[in-house]
Design brief:
Blueprint (H helix, E strand, L loop, with lengths): L20 H4 L1 H5 L7 E2 L11 H13 L9 H15 L8 E4 L2 H12 L5 E6 L3 H9 L3 E6 L1 E2 L5 E2 L2 H7 L4 E7 L11 H13 L3 E5 L15 H4 L7 E5 L2 H4 L7 E4 L3 H13 L6 H10 L2 H26 L5 E2 L7 E5 L7 H11 L2 E2 L1 E2 L10 E5 L4 H14 L5
Parallel strand pairs: 1-13, 3-4, 3-7, 7-8, 8-9
Antiparallel strand pairs: 2-10, 5-6, 9-10, 11-12, 12-15, 14-15
Bound molecules: pyridoxal-5'-phosphate.
Pyridoxal-5'-phosphate binds next to helix 5.
Length: about 400
């Protein structure tokens, strides 16, 4: 397969031996081994971060003193600027809490705003760390399955969810845009979720970490713009981590406009003694800039090319279907049409194609016959993955 190599995203960077999760834990966690194995599981990309981010770190390293961070003002201002210029969302910087990553933000929300035993609604299949955090905090996962629409993408079925409610639910965690499968929820769908939360008196936690990686013509709508009337029950989760491939900086931002919810969350933050990350905040400040925005534009264009190559290649395998991504680099692929068991599919992907993908069942109901593939890598490797997968299922051609 011929692939044009023209951008920094095409550079193959060997991450093995850097103690990274994606490549160095692939064998231990996914059972996929071999020099030429391809890591397409954990959701970080194999691209370098923008030059501005690397420069900020270089300058900090040169300064050489890495003490406690004090003034978070410039960091909050950078967030305010990014959300307003890119997402038309005007937030008050004083409403932002900075947590140790966003999953940490989810756990703190559970602890601060719900009680043990409460039901927490998830629209499944969804990012697996949500259910892990819910169970680890002794709350109950209440799964509301998504359906698949005529366009092959995820869709909501609010009527079915109504009848599945038990009265024990206290919170709904929304993933917007959705991981896996990349649905960019429309304003109307977001309003339906907000109305659902109001009807059932649920706190609405809207995880919008994937909001910058959206493919035209789709457009992300922040929940505070879609449904301002739920401001009194809304918690917003955002981060620069996915957008700029800096997840190792481990910073998440939890924005809460409602004073009562904010006070409860603040108390929990204090009880957990969470404080800010000096180097990480410098990286985010450099990323949330006009130069950073330009870089994201190029990244989205590159990912768009990756998803087209991957989808075309996989859809050519009889019985295999990749959900058309509207956002994210996390392809969601259905193998049910092959008629094979999950074990056989996993063996062909893991052992024949030597690709580590994320198993669908971890994402909850609806993920049984699926695998998630991370497309955040140089295009030659996507082309290689497609060829290997076509070969692994060659008897179906
Ligand atoms: C929806 C969603 N939220 C949160 C995260 C991870 O957040 P963090 O690494 O900041 O804990 C991910 C990672 O894939 C994600 O997809």
């Amino acid at each position: 397969m011929n692939v044009d190599l023209t951008t920094d995203f095409d550079r193959i960077i060997d991450r093995r031996g850097t103690q990274c999760q994606k490549w160095d834990m692939m064998e231990a966690r996914c059972g996929v081994a071999g020099e030429d194995a391809l890591a397409m599981w954990v959701a970080d990309m194999d691209f370098r971060s923008p030059p501005e981010v690397r420069e900020a770190l270089r300058q900090a390293a040169e300064h050489g003193v890495f003490g406690y961070l004090g003034d978070e003002g410039p960091y909050r201002e950078a967030i305010r600027w990014w959300m307003e210029t890119r997402h038309a969302w005007r937030l008050d910087p004083d409403h932002v809490f900075t947590t140790h990553g966003l999953v940490n933000g989810v756990s703190l929300c559970l602890q601060a705003l719900t009680e043990p035993g409460d039901g927490i609604v998830l629209m499944t299949p969804v990012y697996h760390a949500f259910s892990r955090a819910i169970r680890a905090n002794a709350r109950e996962v209440v799964e509301m399955p998504l359906t698949i629409g005529a366009d092959g993408c995820h869709a909501m079925d609010i009527d079915a969810w109504e009848s599945a409610m038990t009265g024990r639910e206290r919170m709904l965690i929304l993933c917007s845009p959705h991981n896996p499968g990349g649905r960019v929820w429309t304003r109307d769908e977001l309003r339906q979720v907000a109305d659902f939360c109001r009807r059932h008196d649920l706190i609405l936690v809207s995880d919008e970490v994937h909001h910058d990686l959206v493919f035209a013509p789709h457009a992300h709508v922040p929940m505070p713009l879609a449904a301002p009337e739920v401001a009194d029950r809304l918690v917003m989760l955002t981060a620069a981590s996915k957008t700029f491939n800096i997840a190792g900086e481990h910073i998440g931002n939890v924005t809460i406009a409602d004073p009562t919810l904010r006070a409860r969350f603040a108390a929990r933050m204090q009880a957990s003694s969470i404080s800010a990350n000096f180097l990480g905040q410098g990286m985010v400040r450099a990323a949330y800039s006009p130069e950073g925005a330009e870089w994201v534009g190029e990244l989205v264009g590159y990912l768009d090319g990756n998803r087209r190559l991957f989808d075309d290649g996989l859809d050519a395998i009889p019985g295999v279907r990749s959900m058309p991504l509207q956002s994210t680099y996390l392809a969601w692929v259905d193998f049910s049409g092959t008629g094979m068991t999950a074990d056989e599919v996993n063996a062909r992907v893991g052992r024949v194609a030597r690709i580590a993908a994320s198993p669908g069942p971890a994402f909850g109901k609806g993920g049984e016959s699926w695998l998630r593939f991370n497309l955040g890598m140089p295009r030659v490797q996507i082309a290689e993955a497609v060829e290997r997968l076509q070969h692994a299922f060659t008897d179906l051609q």
